[in-house]
Amino acid sequence: MALVWEGERVVGAADCQLPQAENRAVLFLDLVVHPEFRCRGIGSRLLNEVDAIAQRHDRTLIEVQVERDAAGFRYLTKRGHQPGATSIRSICKLSGRATASLADGYELVQWRDFAPEEIVDDVAALQSRLMVDAPSGDLTVEQQVYDAERVRRQEKSEHARGHRSYSTAARHVATGHIVARTKLAFETDDDTHARQRITIVEPAHRGRRLGLAVKSANHAYAKAQEPALQVVEAWNSEDNTHMRAVNAALGFEPVDRWSVFQLPVPATSGARA
User: Fold this and answer.
1) What sign has the CA pseudo-torsion 151, 230, 32, 77?
2) CATH number for the 2-86+260-264 domain, one of 3.40.50.300, 3.40.630.30, 2.60.40.2660, 2.60.40.740?
3) What's the predicted TM-score (pTM) here?
């Protein structure tokens, strides 16, 4: 974390994440400057500090997501950078949520926070498909490989940070395997809002509206456990037309667009222009 202070007030911040398994050439960045202090070089100072952090950790790319046509987008495009992908943020108000039935031959499995032991291997296998199936535009992305141990580490880490998550899966009755799964999470102190996280369907079981069914059931499951929940927020690649159609059927409405940039890390510690 890098901070810029104005007296006793933080006016800019850069939060860096350094993956240790896949994507070890990438530093993931969240950077924000207080609106009252923009156009004073604070963003450039922070980005220079992030460059130095990336160099120390042998990263060659800095990935950052900014709102389309907002200050960060204008800053980056003015300096010649082009987005590698665009995401659409949408929200669903659960007061009028839609419902969808599950196809014959499948049954629902639901859990909070920690996947049941008997299905954790299937959960890991599905999660490993995310980077393969999700559109990534022109971004450099490595597939994430999950096993049961990695799933448990992630669950424990999220739980330790105070997150709560609710998951619904579809189990194929004939084989006993989990073939579709979705998850939403409460990641802040606001009990009225949750964030849509994972939704994935095994390719051999697509075309049966399992994604729609598990997401619909998961909304109802989370709402039953969290009565204050009002809104679910989702982020989807602009190119992911199938999942966006599923979300539209559930009542999600687009709010804004976000662009993902991968910035090359300078070879030396010289300041960015």
Assistant:
1) positive
2) 3.40.630.30
3) 0.86
